Amino acid sequence: MVSLMENSLALGMHAGNKEFQSVDLTPEQQKLLIELRRKKQELLLEIQVSDCLKKKFWNVLYMEMLCIFGDTYDENKK
After folding, report:
1. pLDDT tens sequence across 33-51
2. What pLDDT was estimated at residue 19?
3. Where are the domains of the chain?
4. Upper half-sphere CA count for residue 42 (Cβ side, 13 Å)
């Protein structure tokens, strides 16, 4: 069985290099690798947007709680 380390080396991934080098890949494998990289970027962007929306939601909720309960809500939180 081929280890993950051997697979990584066979694909051209070396210590300190975050990107796979596609020199030894077939054209089909290169296309797949490009698609995987694109999907990774999409998912990272989706995570960032999701985190931003969560922060905005909690900020709005906090502000609404302050409006409803006034300073007593903020003081009880401390």
Report:
1. 999 999 999 999 999 989 9
2. 59
3. 4-10+24-77
4. 6
